[in-house]
């Protein structure tokens, strides 16, 4: 009887693990971002590129700490088809976001989420930084919360850029 219970548990756990590995990637929500320079960028516009959508705030210590790496990653990979959209949280004062963007010369799209609709669409994001890596077909490859390993992140970007 004990062997049967163990065997059933192994099969159940293998099935659960297989579901996580083989499940289809989730499509990124079809949202349009309002960029700080007055433009609009939709997820549809970004199809064909690997995209990092990063929710952040000017008062988030980890966000600010990560920003130089986010800039470096954008500069490194954008010629190969990588795009970054840094989405400022609803509570972040737009003048703070604009000041930070200008003084740090952020090279990628910075968007304001003044009504919280983008955060809601991406699964009700409330914690910063929360980032989503999205493949060329508009599917979420990975979700990052807080700090993450740069080497693993770069490997994910390179794999996504190499994929057709």
Automatic annotation (TrEMBL):
It comes from the Bacteria. Residues 22-162 form the Thioredoxin domain. One of its GO terms (molecular function) is oxidoreductase activity. Pfam families: Redoxin. Keywords: Signal. Residues 1-27 form the signal peptide. CDD domains: TlpA_like_family. InterPro entries: Redoxin, Thioredoxin-like_sf, Thioredoxin_domain, Thioredoxin_ResA/DsbE_sf. This is Thioredoxin. It comes from Bordetella genomosp. 9.
């Amino acid at each position: 009887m004990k062997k049967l219970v163990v065997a059933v548990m192994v099969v159940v756990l293998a099935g659960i693990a297989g579901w996580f590995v083989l499940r289809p990637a989730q499509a990124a929500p079809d949202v349009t971002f309002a960029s700080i320079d007055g433009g609009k960028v939709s997820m549809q516009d970004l199809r064909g590129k690997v995209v990092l959508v990063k929710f952040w705030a000017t008062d988030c210590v980890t966000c600010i700490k990560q920003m130089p790496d986010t800039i470096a990653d954008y500069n490194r990979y954008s010629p190969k088809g990588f795009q970054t959209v840094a989405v400022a949280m609803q509570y972040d004062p737009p003048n703070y976001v604009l000041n930070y963007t200008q003084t740090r010369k952020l090279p990628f799209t910075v968007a304001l989420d003044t009504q919280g609709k983008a955060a809601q669409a991406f699964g009700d994001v409330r914690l910063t930084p929360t980032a989503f890596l999205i493949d060329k077909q508009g599917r979420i490859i990975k979700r990052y919360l807080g700090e993450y390993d740069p080497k693993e992140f770069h490997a994910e970007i390179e794999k996504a850029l190499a994929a057709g």
